Amino acid sequence: MDIIRIYIIFILFVSCSPKKEPFVYSEKTGVPLTVIVPAGERFKRLPNSYLPCFFNLATLDNNNSSNTLFIIPSERKSKGSVIYTKPISMFSYSVDTTRFNFIVTRLSGSEKKHLGEDFSDFALNNENLKESIESWFKEQCPYTICSDFRWSNTYKALIQIDKTINDSNAQ
Description:
This protein is an alpha+beta fold. It has a single domain (30-170), classed as Inorganic Pyrophosphatase, CATH 3.90.80. It has helices spanning 2-16, 119-125, 127-140, 154-170, and strands at residues 31-37, 56-59, 68-72, 82-95, 98-107, 146-152. It has a five-stranded mixed barrel with strand order 1-2-3-5-4. The longest helix has 17 residues, at 154-170. It is globular.
């Protein structure tokens, strides 16, 4: 009898737990992000955080503990504001055994395409911006601590977004 009661309580508990709607990426709307570090402020998670960001940093669902953040090279956005973006590429580096991923995005909308539609456009037409982002992180995190700085294409960025969403839904 007790086993049946426990089983019924377990089923009720599982069925009543809130479920998040699955995230579906749309070309029209883009990825909704919450700005956590506006352009012009310091990113305090890095060991030598003395240079302010020249880009906005954002997260999915205000998940500040994630190892995946989003770089939005645009005018300064207010902290906490939700903006819609389109992923372009992924920049990553390692600290010891932990890999940190930064998805480079552009604002959604047809008027904001100067960064390109995908990684090849971005890398070809915005080499200075790409190198500036990489140099900014290298300056903030010395080689003795950070290593294996790497760029990846749009497809890898979308895979990382999906992984980040799945990891946050599992928690």
